[in-house]
Amino acid sequence: xxxxxxxxxxxxxxxxxxxxxxxxxxxxxxxxxxxxxxxxxxxxxxxxxxxxxxxxxxxxxxxxxxxxxxxxxxxxxxxxxxxxxxxxxxxxxxxxxxxxxxxxxxxxxxxxxxxxxxxxxxxxxxxxxxxxxxxxxxxxxxxxxxxxxxxxxxxxxxxxxxxxxxxx
Length: 168
Prior knowledge:
Elements: H1 6-24, H2 31-34, H3 38-62, H4 72-103, E1 107-109, E2 112-114, H5 127-157, H6 161-165
Antiparallel strand pairs: 1-2
């Protein structure tokens, strides 16, 4: 089975590490206004910065074709699964940016100040902030499911799936 290009492999594993690190550095509630999680913001923007070129490379044919498809339903499920992951990988940083803007906290990407994308409010930042908080946990579950499916492919179906994305 053909492997992904090295740049896609690097983006994949870097994205995984950044998502986990962003989740580990997150905190919510009223303390965010007084003590914004600047590292969390930077890690979230780093995810977005990696996902955009990763998605472009993928759309330009950077994902190798599966030579031995397991059937149309599994192929459809894989496409849906990857699409959902990409939606979360793009949506979470954007909803986080929106929530931070609504909270009126300074937003930066490793020290580089970024503009707000919504007007600050005095009260709760709104529904998108709640979506961001819940989505952060959901993406960890999705990533875990993604890993379990890769392991199932490798050890049950024995189709070499892990070699496609292996860094070595």
